[in-house]
Amino acid sequence: MPDFSLYLVTDRGLSLGRDTADIVRAAVAGGVTCVQLREKSCGTREFVREARAVRDILAGTGVPLIINDRVDVALAVGADGVHLGQTDMLLADARRLTGPHMLIGVSAECVEDAVRAQAEGADYIGVSPVFATPTKTDTAVPLGLAGVAAIRAAVSLPVVGIGGIGPANAAEVIRAGCDGIAVVSAIVSAADPERAAAELLTIIRKAREES
User: Fold this and answer.
1) Which tens digit of pLDDT belongs to each residue from 91-124?
2) Which residue among 30, 130, 154, 202 is least crowded, i.e. fewest CB within 10 A of its CB?
3) Measured between alpha carbons, how far is 176 from 32 in angstroms, rounded to an integer?
């Protein structure tokens, strides 16, 4: 199973005009352990081109490439996995297309979502949103740390928290039971993505030591 400690979710709208590939390269140098390519506004061909560029950057690093929503793009580029939200393709349908070896993550907005995802064969759970976030406008009510802890208690899969997480609150998300944190703006919008990633990874490791 991959290391989900510091999970980067890309967003070109928050990249301050920089190329996604450049941000990914810097973030991985800083210690990001998993990358999810999220594209909501570009066409399929452009998405595939960008995914291949990111895949090439990650080659040999041990950092997996996860594609958000799009099973077809994940298959086209030979990605390591795909991440599904509650309105995306059903996990069972995705698994039939991907076969047994591709990672499939599922976003969970409540304990019931997480339990169902585990029962259906998900590889990890994205707990979303932990806190309020402007990055996505279609999210459910924030779960808070108590919600994270409840999901952690209900499933045995790796759990990754996302939504409003940054240096100020990353430690408490880890202490609440998450195996890792997923961040968007904390790295994508940072003046120095490599340094931002390194600082977050230090916070994560320290929180684990203290838990």
Assistant:
1) 999 999 999 999 999 999 999 999 999 999 999 9
2) 202
3) 21
DSSP the chain: ----SEEEE--GGGSTT--HHHHHHHHHHHT--EEEE--SSS-HHHHHHHHHHHHHHHTTTTPPEEEES-HHHHHHHT-SEEEE-TTSS-HHHHHHHH-SSSEEEEEESSHHHHHHHHHHT-SEEEE--SS--SS-SS--S--HHHHHHHHHHH--S-EEEESS--TTTHHHHHHTT-SEEEESHHHHT-SSHHHHHHHHHHHHHHHHHH-
Q: What is the pLDDT of residue 137?
A: 62
Active site residue 107: yes
Known catalytic residue: 136? yes
Catalytic residue among 12, 55, 107, 152: 107
135 has a pLDDT exceeding 70:
no
- Rg of the chain in Å (alpha carbons): 16
Q: Does 49 participate in catalysis according to the annotation? A: no
Mean pLDDT for the stretch of residues 2-10: 98
Among 12, 25, 38, 95, which one carries the catalytic annotation? 38
